[in-house]
Amino acid sequence: VQLVQSGAVLRNPGASLKVSCKTSGYSFASYYIDWVRQAPGQGIEWMGRIDPANGETDYAQKFRDRVTFTADRSTSTVYVSLNSLRSEDTAVYYCASNGATAARVGDYEYTYWGQGTQVTVSS
């Protein structure tokens, strides 16, 4: 199983971003994918989850008005889009999965991790 993320992103405040997570090595629709992030000097923060089988999402309350997760079954890729960026969004963003069993929110002991995508929001 591999989760391969897109490269580093630099954005101005107020802009939007979209990070991809291309999956392989398993049946795409069978694993939940979570998005988490870690800002400098801070702990990991859960952003939400997508079920690629049907596109159903579960967003953390903090991000609900700014984030969108999508899944493209034709390319086995999931995406996170975040708009209205601010400096506090500077972090390393990860896609992660516990396979067919949804991970317990806050455990962060995922079986599979992407390599991380550095997002920097700065003017």
Summarize the structure.
With about 120 residues, the protein is mainly β.
Structure description:
The chain is mainly beta and 123 residues long. It contains no helices and eleven strands. It has strands spanning 2-5, 9-11, 17-24, 33-38, 44-51, 56-59, 67-72, 77-82, 91-97, 112-113, 117-121. The strands form two sheets. Strands 2, 4, 5, 6, 9, 10 and 11 form a seven-stranded mixed β-sheet that branches. A hairpin with a 5-residue loop joins β4 and β5. It is globular. The model has no long low-confidence stretch (mean pLDDT 96).
Oligomer: single chain
Q: How large a portion of the residues is in β-strands, by DSSP E?
A: over 45%
**Helix-and-strand structural type:** mainly beta
- If you compute it from the alpha carbons, what radius of gyration comes out, rounded to the nearest whole angstrom? 13 Å
Biggest sheet character? 7 strands, mixed
Helix content: under 10%
Shape: globular
Order of helices and strands: EEEEEEEEEEE
* Model regions low in confidence, pLDDT < 50 over at least 5 residues: none
Total count of strands: 11
